[in-house]
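Chapter review: from sequence to fold.
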Amino acid sequence: MATQHSRSAARLMMTPAVILLLGWMLVPLTMTLYFSFKKYLPLRGGDLGWVGFDNYIRFVSSSSFWPAVASTLIIVGGVLIITVILGTLLALLLDQPMWGQGIVRILVIAPFFVMPTVSGLVWKNMFMDPNNGFLAHLFNAFGAEPIQWLSQASMPSLIMIVSWQWLPFATLILLTAIQSLDSEQIEASEMDGAGWFNRFRFITLPHLARAITVVILIQTIFLLSIFAEIFVTTAGAFGTKTLTYLIFQRVLESQNVGLGSAGGVYAIILANIVAIFLMRIVGKNLDA
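The token string follows.
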């Protein structure tokens, strides 16, 4: 049993790491809040003084704000639906005995380690190029007209690219959960005559509830800040401009740090609203 002295020593040793972590988070957040109340144009006069909530009003009243929020939520929702459904099916498949099972699992998980910019460029140039892409050749082979993916179907294309990158993460988490399932329950249900679908519905799926919750929460946190894939594919055109990309345009392209900082605060608020909503809807599975 830990003594008071050992607990105090543990807290003392943890203090530098905690202080560093708090500084790492609080300093950028404080600077963002500070600049959001100022008119700061680095290449057009620098610090032009305190403007109060003007940046917040300008950002939210912009014609691009609500479409950017909608695009963000559509991408997040689309990717979550695809990765959870396909991730569950892939996890069930990879749990079955097969030749070269270890190699197959590595190949399935590999896309998760590809950088977002590389992933976007590969899909843009090798698969979705309307002239020389793999999908264009596939359409031509069947006598169909190739699709201008990034212009005619920009949002589905972007969701497909991001889903391809995050599918291995969902598959890995769900596969781990499936492998922790008590085999005796499956065997007992088989002896009782339960079919595959009923075993999945009443045994496997409830067992995966917590893992699915973890996948949804973690992916949502990262997907709300999606940027690289959009930057190298559509550059925010054709209705794919997310809130993060809008902030990028305000800060770097328009050189308005104050307006971009106000957008950053809105992004933090949106992330917290979505996180609270998800915790209320599916977070209860973590306590089950």
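Two observations follow directly from the output. The chain has one domain: 4-287. The longest helix spans residues 4-36.
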